[in-house]
Write a structure and sequence with these properties.
With about 220 residues, the chain is of the alpha+beta class. The protein is built from five helices and nine strands. The strands form two sheets. Strands 1, 2, 4, 5, 8 and 9 form a six-stranded antiparallel beta sheet that branches. Strands 3-6-7 form a three-stranded antiparallel beta sheet, sandwiched between helices. Helix 3 packs parallel to helix 5.
Length: about 220
């Protein structure tokens, strides 16, 4: 995927003492995004945000029909009802600033558990560029799960923005580096497939985004 062209990433030195070593790692990771970002390495002052999370498809209907969820036990039926009733994450105020980019990236990642729990794909899809492979893979996974009558139990997520870069060729493009902690949760594939436990995980993600029409759109995502 090659959104709006690009140039090699060359994060500049920032306020971190080990910045030079991190810059080399990030340059390699962001090359995988074909991001074409460069320069202006900085840290954000954005505080940690907490929410719930999961994995995503090109959707058809967000909520499976009753015929797709046969013979659930009372416990599973109650768990599914709780998942489908999950509230969406709090919205953000679009701002063309580093903190605004970090807040938008945080909101987008907080849609992950919501999408897997409820099958409501609209907000994730609306924020994703059409050719964002990271976005579409997650969308497809969540849609497939719910189309089969499955769901994921809501889980807690802690998202901490760490740093950001801008594209020297196009200052409307940002890459935001975030740390994501996802708590363990259960996923229910539907049908006769047994439920499985998704273990707790932690790792850094690089989110490439673009400011257009007074809001942020996600162009790419990559695990560091």
């Amino acid at each position: 995927m090659a959104p709006r062209g690009g140039v090699p990433i060359r994060p500049s030195h920032g306020r971190h003492p080990n910045r030079a070593a991190r810059a080399a790692v990030l340059a390699a990771c962001l090359t995988l995004l074909t991001a074409g970002c460069s320069g202006n390495g900085n840290t954000t002052g954005t505080p940690t945000a907490t929410a719930a999370g999961g994995t995503p498809t090109v959707s058809t209907s967000p909520t499976p029909s009753a015929s797709q969820t046969p013979s659930l036990s009372p416990e599973d039926a109650a768990a599914r009802a709780t998942a489908l009733a999950m509230e969406p994450p709090d919205s953000y105020t679009p701002e063309f600033t580093p903190d605004g980019a970090a807040n938008a990236a945080t909101y987008f990642l907080n849609l992950f558990p919501y999408m897997y729990a409820t099958g409501d794909l609209d907000a994730w899809k609306d924020m994703s560029e059409d050719d964002c492979e990271f976005c579409n893979n997650a969308l497809d996974d969540a849609a497939e799960l719910h189309d089969a009558g499955g769901w994921a139990d809501p889980w807690e997520q802690e998202i901490t923005p760490l740093e950001w870069w801008t594209d020297e060729a196009d200052p409307n493009r940002y890459v935001v580096r975030v740390n994501v902690v996802s708590q363990a949760h259960s996923e229910h594939p539907g049908g006769d497939t047994p439920s499985r436990t998704v273990e707790k995980s932690e790792g850094a993600l690089l989110i490439q985004m673009y400011w257009e029409d007074r809001d942020w759109k996600i162009e790419a995502g990559e695990a560091e």
